[in-house]
Specification:
Keywords: Signal. GO terms for molecular function: acyltransferase activity, transferring groups other than amino-acyl groups. The protein has 646 residues and is an alpha/beta fold. Helices cover 31% and strands 24% of the residues. The protein folds into three domains: 245 residues, Alpha/Beta hydrolase fold, catalytic domain (Rossmann fold, 3-Layer(aba) Sandwich), CATH 3.40.50.1820; 91 residues, Immunoglobulin-like; 238 residues, Rossmann fold. It has 17 helices and 27 strands. An eight-stranded mixed beta sheet has the order 1-2-4-3-5-6-7-8, with helices on both faces. Helix 12 packs across helix 13. The chain is elongated and about 90 Å long.
Length: 646
Amino acid sequence: MKKISLLKWSYVALALVLGTAAHAQPADKEMPKGFDVARTDIAHGRIDSVQYASKTVGVNRKALVYTPPGFSKKKKYPVLYLLHGIGGDEKEWLRSGNPQVILDNLYAQNKLEPMIVVMPNGRAMKDDRAVGNVFDKDKVEAFYTFEKDLLNDLIPYVEKTYPALKDREHRAIAGLSMGGGQSLNFGLGNLNKFAWVGGFSSAPNTRLPQELVPDPEAARKQLKLLWISCGDADGLIPFSKRTHDYLYQHNVPHVYYVESGGHDFKVWKNGLYMFSQFLFKPVDVASLNKYTVLGTPASTNIRSGKYPQILPDNRVVFRLKAPNAQKVQVDLGKKYDMVKDTAGVWTVTTDSISRGIHYYALVIDDVAVADPGSETIYGAGRMMSAIEIPDRDGAFYELKDVPHGDVRIKRYYSKPLNAWREMYVYTPPGYDQNTSQKYPVLYLLHGGGEDERGWSKQGKTDLILDNLIAAGKAKPMLVVMMDGNVPNAGGLAGFNENVLKTFENELKGAVVPFVESSFRVDADAKSRALAGLSMGGLQTLYAGIKNTSMFSNLGVFSSGWFANNPKLSDPQYAFMKDNASTINSNLKHFWISEGGKEDIAHQNGQIMLKKFDDMGIKYEYSEYAGGHSWPVWRHDLYMFAPLLFQ
């Protein structure tokens, strides 16, 4: 009796282990080779062809229905609706995708929750054959009509004919290409009907992200899983990426899965293999950003450059072919050793990188060079490679469908410096059309190691202003991005009042006169503002405070007089104390910001503000966490510009 009891408990333990496995998320990240080949040594599901009455179309329509191994009418099952592409029909998956084989093999490994899979014809019209020109208007419109057919005819038929669970938590929809767009449109548009939604290589019929998910909070609450996948060589990948970008920005959990491949069944079979393993089980949302094979090429890559790639968790994959190199590293502030394969290709995956733009270099045999796959930017005093990491809070500098201004490169001769100089000037939408209108001007200064290109390239000034102006949050204005570097400055160690005075002379004696003679601007104090970041903040504190009769608005981003350099700082405080009343009356806004305690300027800034308080200098203060970085300064401009010229 004891041996029988032990044997019985062994079977119970095995059942518990297998049951637990059936509720686990996929351990692998890609379908193994040969997994779509039928096996004779396992149990198989069944595929039936069915017909249902469609009141939407007015005819009986066909679908295929897969029931899992061991199917029993005494048990209730969840249902996956699996849709085809624009050139297919209800048999496309069966002909080219072997879905029954993939599912059978997954069941054999106890990786699936038993489910019914329905493969309908997504072309909801009387003659729904995939013949003739499948792009004809009426045939394309039939794919949109299918939403009504699905909801009102097919689902009721399935749930009446089969032992199907009828709640949204047990209903999923997924598809390839046109069917991927349908799945996203219908699933996300009917979250009261579907809790599991998957789009494989979704086609241009996919609605705009803000139409797909108009209420991100509701989507977060109702979705069990949202899956978006595509091949990296698929020309339709922008439709998947724009949806992913929107979901990322609005913090809607989802899988964004990119793999090697084009618009083909290799990708779509893998999509089914991966997606199906999540269905109708508890989902570990925190792990979803790990499910991908490849990353997304960074927006800062050169045209058609595949690397660097950003993974969904903001780790970065770098790759370089250098077969004769002995040692290669990526220097992102922290150095990462790259590993060479037999083809001479060096690869490394970094830790998760913080949001915004980062300068970096490749270090090849101890020589720092720019990455040939990435755009280069002037920063840190030299041309550097740069990579832009997505920012959830970065919608304010997105390229949007709004009127856009121009960034103009203007060269001028500076008498104070006796040299030719260059500035970048943003002119707002309508500047060339509204020839009788004059505009206010914001003079915007860069930081140390950068130049007049910084605010345009790294700062995305034009996009920030375009979006603010389009939303009615900022007045149309010119933004002058001048070169704040002056001759013989000597770097930080040589940063003294003479250098600041030289800058002031350049600003007053060359830049402002050139702008006011070359552009239609209002030439008075109430229509001028001056702002800058870091070094540009010190220049603003110096030239702006000494000329409040010339500038009515000042912005100081991540800056402050040096607490350890009284020779420079004390005269500035003395001037402010003696002129506190004039400063307060002349300045409409004296706006000061820091990037939180991690900002290297934070301590100096706090000491400076305490002195302002003691002197009675009026100011407005803002903090935006992010340190001494471009995400902070972009946000500073976004906050400061709406205050101006109102």
